[in-house]
Amino acid sequence: MTDTPMPSTPPAALKLEQEKIISLPAAVLGVDISRDGKTALAACMDGGVYSVDIDSGRYEQFGKHASYASGVKFVPNASLAISAGYDGALLWHDLAAKQLVRKVDAHKFWSWKLAVSCDGKFAASVSGQYLAGGYKYEPAAANEPTVKVFDIASGELRHGFELTPPVLSVAFSPDAKFAAAGNLMGDLRVWDLESGQQAAAWNTPDFTSWGIIKSHHYVGGIFGVCFAPDGAELLACGMGPMKDPMAGNGKQTWQRFAWRENPPQKRSQIADADQGNGLMETLAFHPSGRYFVMAGRLAQGQWNAAVFDAASGALAVSLDTKMRIAEAAFSADGNRLLLGAAVGQGKPKDGKRPDFGRIAVYAWRSGE
Amino acid sequence: MSHRLNERLLRAGCPRDEHTLHRRRFLEGAAGAGALSLMSFSGLFSLPAFAEEAKRSQKHCILLWLCGAPSQFETWDPKPESAYGGPFGAIETSLPGVRFSSLLPQCATIADRLAIVRSMKTKPNEHFQGIDLLNRGAEPRPPFVRPTLGSVLGQQLGQLDSPIPSFVLLDPCPEGNEFKAFKAGNWAGWLGAEYAPVRAGGEFKIPDVARLPDLTAEDHEDREALRRFMTKKFANERQSAAAASQNAAFARVKGLMSCAHLFDLERLPAADRQRYGPGAFAQHALLARHLVENGAPFVMVANGMNWDCHVFQHEIYQMLVPEVDKIIFQLLSDLEERGLLDSTLVVMMGEFGRTPWLNPARGRDHYPDAWSLALAGCGIRRGVVVGATDPDGVDVTEKPCNEKNLFATIFTALGLDPYAEYDLPGLPTFHRVEDRAEPIREALA
């Protein structure tokens, strides 16, 4: 296994310019952007699923979950969106009619993350409650498959895969033939969607903490996974181990794996010099395939969103948005980056509760 | 003492708690009787009827110490209609109109055995100060150190014939940030080292207390008698607190030698261990029940400071609260089934609550302004919710209660005078509960 931290040599002329910050009533846990880059979808903690006109900043709620809405995605080639929530449900929304067209009770527990394949055929949702399974609070096994893949056209369950809960991240390969997921304990899996067979299984211990200082249980895990554009490698993100599992101050971390090798090999990871401290929750490749963004929360350091050169792993651009970012999404032309996020909820003032959801809109200036 | 005590023992038909030979009464009586020897009282316990009655009427307290401060929203005071309510929702309980967090489904079925206080309102919002306040029942008044609840109850409820320490702290986590600092401090205060906790759980094993195989019991007793004589002589000549502490330590070790097996989790039935759940806190809650069954007056169960979830609030509470749900259900059910619930007070609390509003990390911060706790068992009214908070849980709207009200409630529930004055020559006047703070009457049976 190779483990070569990359040097930090920022490419010239790449810039992210903040266009605007859009406020939403509740924390944004999932965000997506339309192909034309004009409309955002947001899944929020109030259960609301929102459509946002990015230029005007106006938003409209078109869906509602019984608990937090945790993810929302446009379905390619259709006037359709799918959302997921902590109610365990997946909702199909007709975007033109602003109507709910299907509800699937996908899980007994929360949907932590939602993914839709780029061909518009599959939706994947991951779940699982962390329950004590041993003296040291090893996670107990789930009582249902924690990774579920649904046929978007019919709403039928196509696959139910087993992975120790909680499973916090999921992604499809660019060719929509594989799905990958990662969990609290650093377990990573890739499944072949045609055969339903497991294609790869490995563990990385670098994202999981067992509390030494304050409490004895596990925390952390792999919060984001993303296939590289060629599908041959899988990236995972989260934060490095902490002594105090409550502090959220592990090293901001991504790792990159050649998952087709047997066993899968770690090819690279974030350079030590580029790491601050804080939970990283999302990974997204720029449509050019030359860069990827990793974002989340800053505990200590300089940034909570950063663009990395895909070839070298070098940090190219970084931002401190002063928010906890849950998900990042690029427009199809690559000129816009959306960051779905939250600030502190705030005390009620004059009987009103402050908005605390945010969509940060950035213009991508490559200078090329 | 002997006259008073024997008169009580021989009195038929009086309340059973009157039959208890408490360490406190023994010491009071011994002081009055002067030359009475310990042996003569030990002899009393060789009478099976006396020993059995004393054991039967023993009162106990188990403190499930949820250190780090649990969220009231995810436990006893859910606010599902509020923007601050969190993702877990609420469920109906066996008390009409009363809802608990959906993370407490088993407790919901025994709400009619619980007293929930939803209107705790205290001052400190930092851990150490909060832990200190909720363990001692009063704000610090340096240089005097008020004993913790466990030390006071250990002294008051402890029995002469019990080899089990009067105050057991089960906490497998050696660390715990501010709780670690508190643990390193003076638990027993002015009561003296004799009433400090014996710590066990996890890596804190009851030390090697087995008598050496080549030492006979008679030789062991002779050595102990010699040690007592020498220490007494030393203490008499020097007025030494250190000697008193040393005596307390030896007495404790002697007790532990005969009860170390009670601390062995491996000896507990596998079915019981499974019922409570596999985690360290659950296993030690079971151990607490076992110790109480065998006479322990006060057992405190903790697990580091794991309720302090500033960052991973919902990610951790999905695990912590269901574990506590199962523990409370099993513990109260077991105590009831064994006829011990009416004589065992179970207190479930931390040092304060959590903020209604989520911080930027989506966690909840410290919040002493409006928080909840639960009581059950000895002296506690069944199926009552005391106090209330506003729809967002920001403030108490009914029956604010503080630490003094709580301690007055605990002492009253256990049949102890909450306003008793400590006998502390040379010190200012202190009471078990200062300012004659009222107990939470609605929570008392």
What is the CATH superfamily of the largest domain in chain B? Answer: Alkaline Phosphatase, subunit A
CATH class of the largest domain in chain B: Alpha Beta
- CA gyration radius of chain B, whole angstroms: 22 Å
Number of strands of chain B: 14
CATH class of chain A: Mainly Beta
Provide the CATH architecture of chain A.
7 Propeller
Any idea what the shape of chain A is? globular
Question: Which strands sit side by side, in order, in the main sheet of chain A?
Answer: 1-24-23-22-21
**How far apart are the first and last residues' alpha carbons of chain B, in Å?**
31 Å
The helix content of chain A, as a percent range, equals under 10%
What CATH calls the topology of the largest domain in chain B is Alkaline Phosphatase, subunit A
Mean pLDDT of chain B: 84
Oligomeric composition of the shown chains: heterodimer
Describe, in plain words, how this protein is organized in 3D:
Chain A has no helices and 31 strands. With 368 residues, chain A is mainly beta. Chain A starts with a strand and ends with a strand. By secondary structure, chain B is an alpha/beta fold. Chain B has two domains: 1-57, no CATH class; 60-206 and 266-443, Alkaline Phosphatase, subunit A (3-Layer(aba) Sandwich). Helices cover 37% and strands 14% of the residues of chain B. Chain B has 14 helices and 14 strands. Chain B has an eight-stranded mixed β-sheet, with helices on both faces. Chain B has a two-stranded antiparallel ribbon with strand order 2-3. In chain B, α9 packs antiparallel against α10 (241-259). The longest helix of chain B has 25 residues, at 313-337. Chain A binds chain B through residues 26-27, 45-46, 67-68, 86, 109-110, 129-137, 140, 166, 211-217, 219, 244-248, 279, 297, 322-324, 342-348, 353, 356, and chain B through 68, 83-84, 87, 89, 172-173, 175-177, 202, 277-280, 282-283, 303-306, 308-312, 315-316, 318-320, 322-323, 356-362, 392, 394.
